[in-house]
Amino acid sequence: MSEPIGSAKPETGGIANPPVIILIEPQLGDNIGKAARAMLNCGLVDLRLVRPRDGWPNERATANASGADIVIDNTKVFEREEDALADLNRVYVTTARTRDAIKPVFTPKGLAPEMRAVIGRGEKVGVMFGPERTGVRNEHIAMGDAVVTVPLNPGFTSLNLAQAVLLIGYEWWQAGVDVPDYQLMMADTFPATKDDMERLFLHLESELDESGFFRVAEKRPGMARNIRNIFNRANLTHQEVQTLRGMIVAMRGGKFKAKD
Question: Which SUPFAM superfamilies does this chain map to (predicted)?
Fold first, then answer.
């Protein structure tokens, strides 16, 4: 059964018609393959080549794609840039130098929501990358609707082809996922409750009293608060609290029961 026009493939993260990647005169199959791998990492599957130096298909590209076969197998090759761009509504040209053109300039982070908005209107977009050694030429910039420039160290902005593709693809993908910037891997446990922590503190403080740790009575409240702050900052899990209580008992030569 044929696939409905505009439907999303699982590899694209549920997005129909993600951005097209256009490589102008790529020189090495290795670089094409690495760029394809970077594309699939970010849910991009439509790769177009314009006059690849070593021809197509290319064994080195396949090897360096490291399993990104859906990208390699469906790569399209063109002799003219105009043909590679013909079905696109908007084209963004990557370059470290804006030259003399009067064009909107995006960073990769700013480009991602722009492309998602354009695609959301039913339009098709592409991102153009120039040859490895020279980058895009003035005529390529003239073909685009806007320029994309990566804000890097002004003294050294050189990127290899796969790096450049990955930077654009990464921001595209991140703009569409809801992943917290920080999370704690819990395995089979869960965060300690306040009751877990209170039982730990009471247990520990009791043992410290017995051992004579709180030698000066008037300093005990402040020292106990400091100890509690140490453990509260650790974001302990339930299992970690149980382990600590077991350690306390073991140092006293006893046997800890989890419900104590």
Answer: alpha/beta knot
- Judge whether 140 lies within some domain: yes
Of 174, 205, 221, the residue that ends a domain is 174
**Which tokens sit at 99?**
């030259």
Range of the domain at 140: 10-174
181 lies in some domain: no
pLDDT tens, residue by residue, 80-113: 999 999 999 999 999 987 667 789 999 999 999 9
| 239's tokens | 């299992």
**249, two tokens:** 């008992």
C-alpha separations of 119 from 44, 62, 83, 113 in Å: 14, 29, 20, 10
Q: Looking at the structure, do residues 157 and 233 belong to the same domain, yes or no?
A: no
* 21-48: burial string, b at 16+ Cβ within 10 Å, e else: bbbbbbebbbbbbbbbbbbbebbbbbbb
Sequential DSSP letters for 71-121:
HHHT-EEESSHHHHHTT-SEEEEE-S--TT----EE-HHHHHHHHHHHHHT
CATH of the domain at 50: 3.40.1280.10
Residue 155 has pLDDT above 60, yes or no: yes
70, burial (CB in 10 Å: exposed 0-12, middle 13-18, buried 19+): middle
Q: Which helix (H) or strand (E) holds 127?
A: strand 125-129
φ/ψ of residue 17, rounded to 5: 55, 55
pLDDT band at 5 (very low <50, low <70, confident <90, very high): very low
Q: Would residue 72 count as lying in a domain?
A: yes
Q: In a 3-state reduction of DSSP, which class is residue 166?
A: helix
140 and 210 both lie in a single domain: no
